[in-house]
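#data-curation
PF: Archiving a pair of folding outputs for the training set. Convention for this channel: one message per protein, sequence first, structure tokens after, nothing in between. First:
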Amino acid sequence: MTSNIQVEGNPAFARIPPWVKAKLRPIAIEKIQQVHDWIENECIPAERIYKAQLKEARWTTPAIVTELRKKAKAQGLFNLFLPNHFEESPGLTNLEYSCCAEIMGRVYWGAQTLNCHAPETGNIELLAKYCTPEQKKKWLHPLMNGDFSSAYSMTEPDRASSDATQVGIKMEITDEEVIINGRKLYGNCKYNDEMQIFILMGCSDPDNKNPWNRHTTLVVPANTPGLKQVRNLSIMGYDWAPEGHGEYIYENVRVPRENIILGPGRAFEIAQGRLGPGRIHHCMRLIGQAERAYELALVRCYEPRKKPRGKFIGEFDSNIERVADMRMTIDAMRLVVLNAADTMDLQGNKAGRYAIAQSKIMVPNALLKVIDEAMQIYGGQGLTQHTPLPEIWTYARFVRVADGPDSAHRHQVGRDQMKTAQGFRARAEKYTERYKELCRKWNLEPEEFWGIV
């Protein structure tokens, strides 16, 4: 099969590096073009329609999104994120999907119209990877079809989020059911009626000597008696309706034992399988958000009504250099993300954890600066609802914490790198031995170097 789409000179592929283009199969080229046309023609022009509809019904998915989801599904654009090693996958690799996800990220809710938004991406991949056929029929297939939405519930208000072994919500597992008591943060809001299931991680075996085997993951229907939403949590002043972030109390919540995923005590196995792809998906979309901020900055640079001292803003040297730095930063971060996606394809999510952590640490931090520079170019207007920039910046800041704070990922990377230290020390000692041999040959007195004699 070959694609008749012209890649070179095509705006859909303009930012994709040559080494990635060389790996794109015809199916990916077709999907990237479709997603590009979709976001450009269907989503960006509808941004103000979305806002107007959301204002009328704050916790209801805007009608424009519902209509677009039906249209996208009919065009085969649903669930593009699910990697091609799953039988339910539309067929793309992680690397190929990265190119699509960046384009989706140009509009915050663009991915939702294609069923490729958080937390659905992580939850669907979790269910596809770990559920039984019966569980898939009950939860996976409806989620992939867009019949309802879901939430992932792991964070707790009185536990250190950087150490998930401390997750403490209590799960009592009997022969027939699981009884749950405790509190959770950040699962999507029940205010939106489409949100119908929570994928919950809790502590079912607190006395287990292995802290990694104390926890269990299961599905809790949102309407289960005893599950109460306390409030929506605003993020940097935004309520993020219509999905939001809830704070929850579980009080004697009872669900059938068959709602357990994979088995009791296997929550960490599931969490690692879920969180790796989820982290990289955030970064993929954030590249698109940064590109949108960059383009808005260029638009502002040649606004004819804004000409201080008779010059376009873009004619000042400081802004020319600012735009250059923005451009190079986005391009560099794209390479970091694409490398992580390619590593996941070639070596698997577990082997790719360094590349994933690298993306999660570097990309949000770098792109926050890019978006901030775009806001500077707009001046006071860049802080208002006149542009998407404040929400784009807030999303980038949120991504720095989503799925774990920077320090947790840095610790993981640093700890893994420390394991290589003795190997490098042994190599340095060999250099020293060879140096001493050369000293003897050339009748020189050896000197200490690199702290090794």
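PF: Second:
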Amino acid sequence: MEIPDWVSGFFDDGFEETFRRLGKYDTTDQDIDDLLRLVHIPPGARILDVPCGWGRHAGVLDALGYSVVGVDVSEHQVRRARELWPQISFHETDMRTPPEGPFDAVINLWTSFGSLPTRSEDLCALGAWRKVLRAGGPLIMELTTVENAKATNRIVTASSGRKSVVINGVREDATFDWVRGLSVNTYTRGDWSRTCVTRLYTRSELHDMLQSAGFRDITTYGGFDGAPITDDRRTVLVAR
């Protein structure tokens, strides 16, 4: 299976520190607490975290008594996760090839959907997650949508958008191609500079893709706290 060229270089030794400086991990505990209030997952349930990155969500869930399995294609991220939480099962594999189920829930958090080479492969990932979910089990996704990207960026035209910000010594330069639905983000911290490419979807596109993958009972929220949908907030989807 094809892996985007940017993935291996982006998730290296500098990735974790760069995003820590951006404050991306500050709400991890609260996010998981809110998620578990929003979607009832019984203690001890088996949860698939895909992709798991360096395991920050998996670690919190493990401490709460859940049986977590993490999946990530990045060798560095899986190695780091295993160092931090050796008691958790982490797999270095593509998100389209998760371990055998059944899982009681699947989580896909932090705009970790849309990184595969094509839309059809994103759909393939959704189908793979559905197959390893037990009947009625929830898939929980949290991500930036096209609506959110358009609402929160500095310069927006009919076909594109862009922004540049500096936070705690990290510069982010982002460009958006609304026609192709692509977000290209470059993060620079000293000598460390990496670029990632994400395919963004509208909320209606995500709903249709989930239905095509075999999910039903799809609910959309404006955050883990269950708030109403607004364009200036990221989207949480719960599908069964």
